[in-house]
Amino acid sequence: MKRFLATALTALVILGASTIGAGAETTYTLTYIANGVIYEQVEVAAGTTVTLMTTNLPIKPTLLCRGWTLIEGGTTMVKKVKIDADTTVYAVWQAPIWLDYLPGWLGFVKDLPGWAQDIFHYFLFGWIFEIWPAK
Q1: Phi and psi torsions of 39, nearest 5°
Q2: What gap in Å lies between CA 131 and CA 120, rounded to an integer?
Q3: CATH architecture of 27-96
Q4: What would the pLDDT profile of 65-120 be if each residue is shown by its tens digit?
Q5: Alpha-carbon distance 99 to 110, whole Å?
Q6: Side-chain-facing half-sphere of 69: CA atoms under 13 Å
Q7: Average pLDDT, the chain
Q8: How far, in Å, CA of 95 to CA of 73, rounded?
Q9: 10 Å Cβ neighbour count for 87?
Q10: What is the percent of the chain with per-residue pLDDT over 90, rounded to a whole number?
Q11: Would you kindly state where each structural domain of the chain is located, as residue ranges?
Q12: pTM of the predicted model, to two decimals?
């Protein structure tokens, strides 16, 4: 009987120790960098494939964030990242697309600050939506 109790107690101690260690999950930090500063940080379980944020993207005067890259200053965008270590992604900036369709004589608009571009955009295109409202 003493041997049975000793064996049972040993088994409980071993099982208890293994379940305590099993609950610890490795996590890494996914860091989003925009404008040279941390935009957001997320803790992610190791081995997880993360779809990078596509909403609430950072903004910069006269530029829009079009996605994320793994290389600072890079232009090759990635949509998903497998997290096996602390990972940093960097914003990829691009001029608003509507600026590319301006006729040549309106090229000066690209040199205006972002708020002035927004006003110009409203006066150039906003009246269309007031004449033909969405149904």
Answers
A1: -90, -40
A2: 18
A3: Sandwich (2.60)
A4: 889 999 998 889 999 999 999 999 999 988 766 666 666 666 666 677 777 777 77
A5: 7
A6: 12
A7: 74
A8: 15
A9: 17
A10: 35
A11: 27-96, 98-123
A12: 0.58
The Cα–Cα gap between 12 and 80 comes to 43
Measured between alpha carbons, how far is 124 from 112 in angstroms, rounded to an integer? 15
State residue 63's pLDDT score: 75
**CA 19 and chain centroid, separation:** 34
- In angstroms, the CA 24 to CA 81 distance is 23
Residue 33 CA to residue 52 CA, distance in Å, equals 12
Residue 78 CB partners (closer than 8 Å, separation 6+): 52, 67, 68, 69, 70, 89
Give CA–CA dist 13/22, Å, rounded: 14
Compute the distance between CA of residue 82 and CA of residue 100 in angstroms, rounded to an integer: 34
Q: Which residues contact 76 (CB under 8 A, 6 or more apart)?
A: 69
